[in-house]
């Protein structure tokens, strides 16, 4: 559940759909069923997309989104003397790009790891390397220079599996747990008008029938639940309540880990054009069609602007929200995680304010919506 206890912290839900298998590796090789394993939650052993991976990728995409609005392509590379030039950004640039004046310092190096963190904050805006420390990317996601560090204003949670697709004799079903549905604010109470499959824990007594979830053959009973899937409308994807299977917590991890996508790959010898001997490896991934859920918080520090010199220019919460919304389309093409050139990584995201939040979804294009 989401709670916003004050006006300076805004919380948003993320519902996402994997349109490709998602591979976020642990690094290195392991001994077991697969060579390249993916990141898992330590307590549940469920695969996830870590908040650090989401934050790092989104930081890069916000930087790319800003760079497409420069009036001169040289500005995408050089920062020198930008402060003395007018009309750095095109007129059609959204307000979060054009109106936040310190975006004039932004460089492509503001995305990713700072490669020149040993210079002072005041020098950073005029140098062509490292984080500038001034733009909406550095202020929103954080930076660290020789004489000053900034925590950032956007806080990313992990994306955890909410609905996991599994092959059954009745077609593809999406497996979840009651706890996951409650956490994602999809299950209001236990009773309702929608019939769903509910897998029984141990006994077959009172079961309606049996259903295979991958290689597992389990008894189930159809029960009516009050499940609302209105929030899980990701682009053209629509999931029906009748396709949901609720399983016990103790089974969920086993079902997910038994039905991950496993691919076997091989390196190609550039001389012969054939498979290279001894270069065979397997990797696992979260399969396409998986629905994930997480949260983002934005700490609107702009309300403290003017208290000190370092807080004199900060982006508002609405500017940061617009930056995230306008740049999330890159996830649908460039993806997240590893092996994106091999058909992995594409994902669709929907960002929605939590109930009780006074934030509203809006398009911040050109003259629309003053977010001052």
From TrEMBL:
Keywords: Antiviral defense. Pfam families: RAMPs. GO terms for biological process: defense response to virus. The keyword Methyltransferase does not apply. It comes from the Bacteria. The keyword Magnesium does not apply. Residues 20-348 form the CRISPR type III-associated protein domain. This is CRISPR type III-associated protein domain-containing protein.
